Amino acid sequence: MIAAVASTDWEAEGSMWSVRVLRAVCFTLLVWPASTVTNGSNDAAAGLQAQLRDAARDMFKFGWRGYMDHAFPADDLRPLSCTGHNTQGGFGNTLVDSLDTLLVMGEGSEFASAAAWAATNLTFDIDRRVHTFELTIRALGGLLSAHVLVAANPGLLPGYDGGLLSAAVDLADRLMPAFDTPTGIPLSWVNLRRGVLDGEIRETCTACATTLLLEFGYLSHLTGNRTYGGAAARATGAIFGRRSAALGLPGNTVDCDSGDWVRGDSGIGAGLDSYYEYLLKAYLMFGDETSLTMYAEAHAAANATMRLVGELGRRGWLVDVHMATGQLSRVWVSSLAAFWPGLQALAGQTESADRQLRSWMEAWNTFGWLPELFDVGVSVRHPMEKGYPLRPELIESTFLMHSATGDDKYLQAAHTLQDTLLKRNRGKCGYASVSDVESGVLEDTMESFFLSETAKYLFLLGAGAGDLPDFFVLTTEGHLLPPLPATAAHSAGFSHLTTPDGAGTTMDTQEAGSSLTDNAPPSAAPRSKANHTDGSHDWPHSHGSSGSHSSEAEATEAATLAAQQGGTAGQAAA
Q1: Three-state secondary-structure class, residue 436
Q2: Can you count the helices (H) and strands (E) in the chain?
Q3: How many CB atoms lie within 10 A of CB 471?
Q4: Angle formed by the axes of helices 163-175 and 213-223, to 10°?
Q5: Closest Cα to residue 494, out of 282, 276, 299, 177?
Q6: Cβ atoms of residues 319 and 333 within 8 Å
Q7: How far is C-alpha 153 from the chain's CA centre?
Q8: Residues forming the active site
Q9: Could you give the CA distance from residue 459 to residue 15 in angstroms, rounded to a whole number?
Q10: 245: which of 13, 27, 269, 499 lies 20 to 30 Å off by Cα?
Q11: CA angle 212-284-142, nearest 5°?
Q12: Is 68 or 555 the better-scoring residue by pLDDT?
């Protein structure tokens, strides 16, 4: 058992070894940039980066060691009671999800032990009902990333014979029955041993159905079996082709058999977030022009219908509206939507991304963390969805904005986020989620994405790895996969990326391309590191004026009333 392997001498490896690993995994480039600190001429920024890097590495080590000592081979660690918990099938999910993070952190020997165990002992022959989307992004993505990195750097795991890829194929084969629906839209749940069970739920969310393109497409490219990517592409096309005719918006939940929308609310938060993310990243990963056109249309439709105007519009929120009418559905902001500024950064939209990132930091400073839902006036957390499960999206966006601009203010923002986690979330043997941001009471959970994403993005901010997105596409779970040649769209099975008969698109390709950016198209080419000076460098610390909450609460109340009466997002905020 890997848990019995002696612990690595973490400190002996040193932070510079981490830099060498980052260089090693960037095997798509012959020469890594000479500077390892994005703005190395600034001593204060360099010192802040060092603090971020070292603290993030310590956070990861503490959580990883807690998991291995107290939870493995269970899926997740309970960081307060120091026990294990199975949430994804009971195969050691946190280990698989964290493999490439071990390399990024510079933990070579620990990675070798974990990867060797996964390559030889991991099994998905388990009689458990699992979530298609969750296992795809956590386990399939984790295995693919680790396999690609080892295959390109054999010294990381001497004697490796492809066991990680074999495990990925086995898992994908066990998930494939979910795609056996009349529409090709996959079911949310499948039994790893017995396939789709009688009486299974026959509906799924939009993000659940479409956030499969990278992992299944990459598996097709590696194996030569285009079935995997073809199934994922068909599912994405089926969702895209069912957008509303008038506004070009998808709904939140769809019936997998009929293709009818079960929930018609549309937004960029829970249930829809990574639908947008994977359309853009499928282009960055495979060079698929169809995906880029689809992203451009989806992005333009969201901006045209969901953006608040007036007093509440100054924060840049995109709110939930009805897919067919554009009427406001609710005035709560989903914390999952904090990925949006990072997506904008990848597309070159740094100005609007900066404005929204300021608002996200205002929310963090107001509530102490990001509650799952909060009001558009940033004054009230949702009465039920009030916790913070250590989500990475805000930190991810902060990393991508720093990567795109080189502006040191994002390092300070990251320090603010990290400081909270260090002081308020550390438990007995790991980092704990928050059950209620108002009371600050912790709960006994540490999801695997805390190690695979949250700690990783903090470390990358501190490690001077701002160029990493130029050489890797980061999946929605933060796994590193190098982009493939433009011809790879075929080997990934993306010839199936079509919409249902008669569905078509809502704007031509030229219009779609022009709607993408403030200043640049999405690209995997190196971006400018020029400092932006259009905003105050201390904006992450702005807690907002307490005196403004009264007027904002009134505006929120007006927006709520508009939602009840069927007003649009723009009308509500005007």
Answers
A1: strand
A2: 25, 15
A3: 19
A4: 120
A5: 282
A6: yes
A7: 26
A8: 134, 273, 372, 393
A9: 11
A10: 269
A11: 45
A12: 68
Q: Tell me the pLDDT of the chain averaged across its residues.
A: 84
| pTM to 2 decimal places | 0.85
How far are the Cα atoms of 318, 363, 466, 556, 570 from residue 550, in angstroms, in the given order? 22, 16, 40, 10, 21
Which candidate, 318, 337, 334, places its Cα nearest to that of 569?
Answer: 318
Q: Identify whether the C-beta of residue 452 lies closer than 8 Å to the C-beta of residue 63.
A: no
Per-residue model confidence as pLDDT tens digits over 359-378: 999 999 999 999 999 999 99
Give the pair of three-digit tokens for residue 346.
């990848």
Extract the tokens encoding 266: 């549309």
**Token pair 């194929």 in the structure block, residue:** 169
Contact 571, 445 (CB under 8 A): no
> Which tens digit of pLDDT belongs to each residue from 402-434?
999 999 999 999 999 999 999 999 999 999 999
Q: Which residues contact 211 (CB under 8 A, 6 or more apart)?
A: 133, 136, 137, 274, 275, 277, 278, 476
Q: Is 225 helix (H, G, I), strand (E, B) or coil?
A: coil
Q: Which pair of tokens denotes residue 372?
A: 């799952």
For residue 485, cis peptide bond before it (omega within 30 degrees of 0): no
Distance of CA 93 to the CA centre of its chain: 17
CA 81 – CA 430 distance, rounded (Å): 10
Q: Which residue has the tokens 């903090």?
A: 458
Pick from 495, 406, 391, 514: which is nearest to 447 by CA? 391
Q: Count the residues in the chain.
A: 574
